[in-house]
Amino acid sequence: MSDVDLEALTRRVTDKLIAANQAAHPWLADMAESWAVPQFSYEAPQLPEDWPQFPREQWAILPARRAVALTLADRLIDDGKLSEAGWLVAYGGKTRIS
Fold it and tell me: Which among 8, 10, 14, 54 counts the fewest CB atoms within 10 Å?
């Protein structure tokens, strides 16, 4: 499977998952907008110069495993198992390298 095919499969399954979540939980769309707006303003204090900083997580995609995970997620969406499908879309076929 090429990178273009994998990207198209990822986009198709992600769009299908979003549509299924919105159909199953229509009230979440209204709540998401209110969660995105901060209720108060807060400015974090400056960190000291020697404060340890951790690198961001880096993930490697394993194309064959990713394709299997997305295909399985597609079937789970059809069965109504949205939380399991969401987990597979987010992490399936990926491995954390740092």
Answer: 54
Q: How far is C-alpha 65 from the chain's CA centre? A: 17
Residue type, 63: P
Query: How many residues are recorded in the chain?
Result: 98
CA 5 – CA 9 distance, rounded (Å)? 6
Query: Rounded to a whole number, what is the distance in angstroms from the first to the last CA of the chain?
Result: 26
pTM: 0.73
Instruction: Cite the beta strand spans of 37-76 per DSSP E.
Output: 59-61
β-bridge mates for residue 95, sequence order: 60
User: Taking Cα atoms as reference points, which of 20, 13, 50, 73 lies closest to residue 28?
Assistant: 20
Maximum separation of any 2 CA atoms in the chain, in Å = 52
pLDDT > 70 in the chain, percent = 88
CA separation, residue 36 to residues 14, 29, 30, 39, 49 (Å): 21, 11, 11, 9, 31
DSSP E strand boundaries for the chain: 59-61, 94-96
